[in-house]
Structure formats: C-alpha cells, structure tokens
Amino acid sequence: MKLLIVEDEPVLRNALLEYLRHDGYVCEVADSYLQAHEKIKLYQYDCVLIDLTLPDGNGLDLVRTLKADGSRAGVLIISARAALDDKVLGLELGADDYLAKPFHLVELNARLKAIIRRRQFQGQHHLLFRDLSVFPEQALVLVRDEPLTLTRKEYDLLLFLLANPNRVLTKESIAEHLWGDDADTADSFDFIYTHLKNLRKKLQEKGVDNYIRTIYGTGYKLSTE
Ligand code: CA
C-alpha cells in the first residue's frame, strides 16, 4: 500500500511517516501544495493524506485535482481547521474521510484501513481471487485455506496485482508502488524480477500456477483465467 502524506508541520509529518512506515506502508511525503500537486500528477497512490492549511495553497484544491484526474487514490483529510464548512466541502469534493487534529495515530490508521478496504476490497474484510483469500488487516494470504508465507515485498506485490486484475502493470509502476521515492529504476527492476520469481515459486508450491503472466518487454499481469 502506497501513501502520500501532505503535511507542512515537520513534527507531525515525521510522526506520521515513522508510524505508517512501521505499519508496513510505502510512504512518500510532501511539505507544500506545489510538491504535493507535482506528486499526485506524476504518481499513483492508494491513499493520500491531505492537510488543508499548506503554506502555499489549500489542500482542498489537491482533492479537486485528484478527482478531476479520475484518481483511484483514497483521500483522507487531516485538518486543524475545525470549520464544519471545510469538512462538508471536503467530503462533497469526494474525500473519503475527515479527521480533525489533534488525533491519535491509532485512529488515523483505523480510518486509513477502512478507506483502503472500501476502495480496494469493496468493503469486505477479505478479498477472494480464484484460489486465493487475502485478509489485508492481518497481512494473511491463504491458498485453498492453507497459509502462504510471504515477505513484505512479495505481499505488497501480490496486493498490487490483486488490485489491478487483468491490467498490465509496468515495471516502472511496480517499482514506484513498492519503493516510492526510494525506487532507483535500474536496481529496482532486478529486485522486481527476484520478488516475482519468489512469489510465483511459493504459489506454485501450493499448486497455484499461471496466475501472474509476464508481458514481454512491458511488465506483468494478474490473469483472471
Ligand atoms: Ca498545515
């Protein structure tokens, strides 16, 4: 799961970054409206956390941009502005939720998980795909009721594929998703190959074959048949 944290207060930004990274999210940060705008134009996120009061702009305009672009990212507004108008407007613009500062990180994480569940798992606590069942809150994958042991990156890769069935995912988009700002293209392509090989092997050992197709020269696709 890849997140963008838009927050200009360094203490809160770093607290969010540390907490959410520790929980296994791939996180990027933006400390200004312009930086955030550039990132949402360039990259795909599963969820964007948006502070409304930014030094060079209004977070609500970022929500507008995401919606105008047809982004699939969830949007969680975090704001110290307690104004009801902001909350109503934010939700009307298409934000998924609104959390007033100060908040507990545990609550933020619960709201985030709910958004991701709604968006990617149609509100279900688990996802079924052919012989796979995935329980994202426990990071648990079952193959015909037998647990599959995956590394964090293998798990993230599988979830990214499951969120995009039958769509070709380029190596660039996978690298972006798995490493965010740390994606160094040349190296990360080798890592993707290795993680994919291992993931396929583990699936094969459980009798699951040909779920992940290689699209020569482009990337990979999760096949629904
Ligand atoms: Ca602020």
Task: Explain what this protein looks like in three dimensions.
With 225 residues, this protein is of the alpha/beta class. It folds into two domains: 2-121, Rossmann fold, CATH 3.40.50; 127-222, Arc Repressor Mutant, subunit A, CATH 1.10.10.10. The protein contains eight helices and 14 strands. The protein has helices spanning 10-22, 33-42, 59-68, 84-93, 105-120, 152-163, 171-179, 185-205, and strands at 2-6, 26-30, 47-51, 53-54, 57-58, 74-79, 97-100, 127-129, 132-135, 140-143, 146-147, 168-170, 212-215, 219-222. Helix 4 (84-93) links the parallel strand 6 (74-79) and strand 7 (97-100). Helix 6 packs across helix 8 (185-205) and helix 7 packs across helix 8 (185-205). The chain is globular and about 55 Å long. The two termini are 25 Å apart. The model has no long low-confidence stretch (mean pLDDT 90). The structure holds calcium ion. The site of calcium ion has 5 residues, from strand 4. Residues 2-116 form the Response regulatory domain. Keywords: DNA-binding, Phosphoprotein, Transcription, Transcription regulation, Two-component regulatory system.
